[in-house]
Amino acid sequence: xxxxxxxxxxxxxxxxxxxxxxxxxxxxxxxxxxxxxxxxxxxxxxxxxxxxxxxxxxxxxxxxxxxxxxxxxxxxxxxxxxxxxxxxxxxxxxxxxxxxxxxxxxxxxxxxxxxxxxxxxxxxxxxxxxxxxxxxxxxxxxxxxxxxxxxxxxxxxxxxxxxxxxxxxxxxxxxxxxxxxxxxxxxxxxxxxxxxxxxxxxxxxxxxxxxxxxxxxxxxxxxxxxxxxxxxxxxxxxxxxxxxxxxxxxxxxxxxxxxxxxxxxxxxxxxxxxxxxxxxxxxxxxxxxxxxxxxxxxxxxxxxxxxxxxxxxxxxxxxxxxxxxxxxxxxxxxxxxxxxxxxx
Length: 344
Ligand SMILES: NC(=O)C1=CN([C@@H]2O[C@H](COP(=O)(O)OP(=O)(O)OC[C@H]3O[C@@H](n4cnc5c(N)ncnc54)[C@H](OP(=O)(O)O)[C@@H]3O)[C@@H](O)[C@H]2O)C=CC1
Ligand SMILES: O=C(CO)COP(=O)(O)O
Known about the structure:
Elements: E1 5-8, H1 12-22, E2 27-30, H2 34-43, E3 45-46, E4 49-50, E5 55-58, H3 61-67, E6 70-73, H4 80-87, E7 96-99, E8 105-106, E9 124-125, H5 127-134, E10 139-144, H6 149-153, E11 158-163, H7 167-177, E12 182-187, H8 190-212, H9 217-237, H10 243-246, H11 248-259, H12 264-275, H13 278-284, H14 290-305, H15 310-320, H16 325-328, H17 330-333
Parallel strand pairs: 1-2, 1-6, 2-5, 6-7, 7-10, 11-12
Antiparallel strand pairs: 3-4, 8-9, 10-11
Helix pairs in contact: 4-5, 8-9, 8-11, 8-12, 8-14, 8-15, 12-13, 14-15
Bound molecules: NADPH dihydro-nicotinamide-adenine-dinucleotide phosphate (NDP) and 1,3-dihydroxyacetonephosphate (13P).
The site of NADPH dihydro-nicotinamide-adenine-dinucleotide phosphate has 25 residues, from helix 1 and helix 4.
């Protein structure tokens, strides 16, 4: 192995991580499409961004695993189990693997209907759980925070969280990524950090819907605040400490994605809000919107777990029951108001 750091996934976030890493180290960036890696190496640019020459692209999964003992992964959650299985023969307990994925993988991948039997509990695996079950990697981490990739690629100031049960993972990530205007905070709450990153996408869709309909800043604030409450009570139901939800990877990322037009989850919700035409919004979306699958999974979970989550209910009804946004907003007003803060 050499001292290059591997990044798997050459989309928006993988490219942004590569550029941040290249400030401190050489980077091997894996693009599964050979033409893409050849173009990156020839032009030193990708998706319209000029890349530092310290980034070399590669399309051989075995080679990147052999050459890099530290690997970052940034691909869509629904592809993650396939990738983990493909990497498995090339990974060893010496590797450190850090993912930046904000979504879930179904426990039973055949069960695309997300049907959950009453005693099944949480129906999904986080990406660290996928890595643990599909590979023999031990030292696993999650990088999560308010990290809109376009802002990172423009080198605007940002910060993030590295969560892991292993100090080596945290220190390695901090040494590799810390730089002027980008800092990593540490967390021991790996699963909580992963869950917070996935759940905030649902709230970002809700906030986009509210703004697309011009329903005002008051309602936007209610949706974001009550959305955070729903993230926390889902966490509580899974015995997850609130810490992960209250820091940068929770409320920090929630603010970024629920207010930024450059968030794909927010802008998906915004498009729906503007047209109230879910079929068209789904049809027109070319970008990855992790929150759609997460909404379907989590809605089924909160129903079975008997949790009251009006914001998630609202998003579910608009996307999956084709309800108009104005009508779905009623979920937020359908409950007797009790204590404002009922979750701490
Ligand atoms: N963009 C952002 O601002 C941030 C995104 N994230 C999270 O990072 C994850 C990835 O998002 P993002 O980079 O934006 O998504 P993009 O859609 O921009 O890119 C996804 C990349 O993953 C690649 N890919 C898909 N499947 C595989 C596979 N099996 N093996 C190897 N490569 C694969 C795609 O390759 P191909 O082009 O060949 O299809 C593509 O390059 C998501 O979970 C997202 O929530 C986290 C923080 C910020
Ligand atoms: O998680 C993100 C920024 O932190 C990216 O959000 P989107 O996937 O909605 O673009």
